[in-house]
């Protein structure tokens, strides 16, 4: 047992959790005047004081208490999942006490019973009143059972219970959609609070005094489904699977649990008992909330409309994104989207597409042999228009490529950097300029620049070093077109004729 510790609370609330930051169903859904269920890892405790100090402590038991402790004004309990074997009690706004932080509790499924007394609001509290105290008793369990009021506060109010909302949250928490963050983001480091390695599976237990039924069939869960298949009169198997007809544009395929579990419904003198055995401990509380809905309102799936609405929104967003991609592709590629191969090529394919899209498609359709021939043809035209065709070392490299021999190392290593530097320093190389006209796009304003014609043409020859004949052809023809400057259209017409 921890010592009594002072805890600052706000809005009459404090949080009890086993996993920091775990999201939950929220308050005012399920609970009484003392405890409101929050989910597998959290619940909210209610105080008499609105803003101020209370005293609290935690008592870890080796077994369930044999009787209810006397001397308390209200007692309630709920089940939590503590994969790390730690439990903390903090004020609503985050204030905590060291004695109430990371208290060692049994690892796995635990039952927490909250005792409270002297819950007085500060407007009626006087100096002689004892401090408000809350004591938590914790013990290990292997069955998840519903929250319950053990001792009701005579002055408490009756809270409206909303099991359908709780079931909706529970099911949606089991099938979360991807966050949509950048694919290259680093994975989060392992969270020791959530590590449930080595923990046994548990059971979810629900009891009803009136007859209930668990029909075999399929529970719809958007892209996934729960299949309940009958084994005998009292037993069914529960298994997750992908849905026959997914509803999201990018369907989920990861199942909450790959292993089937067993559902047993038995009757006795005091009513009907459902046991869902072999479930993951982290799912026990959420499955319990789902079973409360299925047993009391058979055939009603409150999560379904939410999933359909989310799917409709996702479909609309996907269609909007598709239209934007199509418009962007039409501008960037000068027409319909190209083949996946063209899109992935490390080449000037996109630039050539904006210059002459039919020519790019024609090159793509050629055989590898014809692509290599087209690349050599374009390189020679580029060398000719730039006055480089008769420069000895350039002519030798071009002839080697046309004869299917390797180009000199200066053309093949480091992107042909040595050959390009030689081009700029060779006194025999002429120096003429060519006009480059850049058309306006959504990403670029129109502009006209002058460039050394030989520098514009030379990459057409360097392109012949590429082992991929398609890349070689695209890059050679594109750079040859640039080298022709204002005579580019005539070159492109000749290219169409040459490729025929």
Return residue spans where pLDDT drops below 50 for at least 5 consecutive residues. Answer: none
Q: Main sheet, how many strands, which sense, barrel?
A: 7 strands, mixed
Task: State which percent range the strand residues make up.
Answer: 25-35%
Instruction: Give the strand order, joined by hyphens, for the main sheet.
Output: 11-13-18-17-16-15-14
Helix content: 25-40%
Radius of gyration, Cα only, in angstroms? 36 Å
What is the helix tally? Answer: 13
Q: What overall form do the CA principal axes indicate?
A: elongated
N/C terminus separation: 89 Å
Structural class by SSE content: alpha+beta
Average of pLDDT: 92
Number of E-type strands: 20
What does this structure look like?
- The chain has a 7-stranded mixed sheet. It has a 6-stranded mixed sheet with strand order 1-5-10-9-6-12, with no helix packed on it.
- It contains 13 helices and 20 strands.
- Strand 17 and strand 18 form a beta hairpin.
- By secondary structure, the chain is of the alpha+beta class.
- The model has no long low-confidence stretch (mean pLDDT 92).
- Helices cover 31% and strands 25% of the residues.
């Amino acid at each position: 047992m921890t010592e009594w510790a002072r805890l600052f609370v706000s809005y009459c609330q404090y949080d009890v959790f086993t996993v920091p930051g775990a999201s939950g169903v929220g308050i005012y859904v399920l609970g009484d005047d003392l405890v409101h269920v929050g989910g597998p890892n959290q619940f909210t405790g209610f105080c008499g004081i609105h803003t101020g100090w209370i005293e609290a402590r935690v008592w870890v038991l080796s077994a369930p208490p044999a009787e209810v402790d006397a001397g308390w004004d209200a007692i309630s309990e709920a089940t939590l999942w503590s994969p790390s074997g730690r439990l903390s009690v903090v004020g609503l706004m985050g204030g905590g006490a060291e004695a109430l932080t990371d208290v060692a509790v049994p690892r796995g499924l635990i039952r927490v019973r909250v005792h409270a007394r002297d819950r007085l609001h500060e407007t009626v509290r006087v100096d002689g009143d004892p401090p408000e105290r809350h004591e938590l008793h914790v013990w290990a369990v292997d069955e998840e059972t519903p929250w319950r009021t053990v001792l009701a506060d005579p002055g408490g109010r009756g809270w409206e219970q909303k099991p359908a909302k709780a079931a909706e949250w529970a099911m949606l928490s089991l099938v979360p959609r991807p966050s949509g963050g950048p694919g290259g983001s680093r994975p989060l480091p392992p969270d020791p609070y959530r590590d449930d390695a080595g923990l046994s599976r548990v059971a979810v237990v629900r009891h009803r005094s009136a007859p209930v039924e668990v029909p075999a069939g399929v529970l719809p869960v958007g892209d996934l489904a729960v299949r309940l298949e009958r084994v005998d009169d009292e037993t069914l198997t529960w298994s997750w699977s992908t849905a026959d007809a997914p509803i999201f544009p990018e369907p989920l395929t990861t199942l909450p649990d790959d292993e089937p579990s067993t559902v047993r419904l038995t009757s006795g003198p005091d009513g009907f008992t459902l046991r869902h055995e072999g479930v993951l401990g982290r799912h026990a509380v959420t499955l319990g909330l789902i079973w409360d809905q299925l047993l009391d309102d058979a055939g009603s799936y409150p999560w379904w409309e939410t999933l359909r609405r989310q799917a409709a929104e996702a479909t609309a967003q996907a269609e909007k994104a598709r239209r934007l991609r199509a418009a962007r592709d039409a501008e960037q590629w000068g027409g319909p989207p190209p083949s996946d191969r063209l899109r992935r090529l490390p080449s000037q394919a996109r630039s050539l597409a904006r210059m002459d899209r039919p020519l790019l498609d024609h090159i793509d359709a050629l055989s590898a042999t014809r692509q290599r021939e087209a690349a050599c043809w374009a390189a020679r035209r580029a060398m000719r228009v730039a006055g480089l065709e008769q420069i000895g070392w350039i002519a030798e490299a071009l002839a080697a490529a046309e004869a299917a021999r390797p180009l000199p190392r200066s053309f093949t290593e480091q992107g042909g950097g040595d050959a390009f530097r030689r081009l700029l320093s060779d006194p025999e190389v002429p120096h003429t300029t060519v006009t480059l006209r850049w058309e306006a796009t959504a990403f670029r304003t129109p502009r006209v620049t002058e460039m050394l014609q030989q520098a514009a043409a030379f990459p057409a020859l360097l392109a012949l070093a590429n082992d991929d004949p398609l890349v070689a052809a695209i890059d050679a023809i594109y750079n040859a077109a640039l080298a022709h400057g204002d005579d580019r259209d005539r070159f492109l017409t000749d290219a169409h004729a040459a490729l025929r």
